Amino acid sequence: WGNVGPNTIQGPGLAVLDFSLVKDTPITRISEDFKIQFRFETFNLLNRSNFGTPVRQIFDGNGNLRGDVGRITRTTTTSRQLQFALKVIF
Distance (Å, rounded) from C-alpha 2 to C-alpha 10? Predict the structure, then answer.
């Protein structure tokens, strides 16, 4: 089993920048409490690739040596996402 301690493998860093803009517009002709809210939100604004940890399993389920040991084969976050919303508050 080896003599390496737990949690000794460190993967790539993780960084995500989310951003949001909100604009409230009161409409007093209808009611004093009535307003329309416009929202713009973006997730992973800089579109940074956040890679997962390397594959640590050496053998597959049949006891065969895996060919992707030590390789990074996935990302941990999604790509950039933009979202617009219009909300009516009354």
Answer: 18
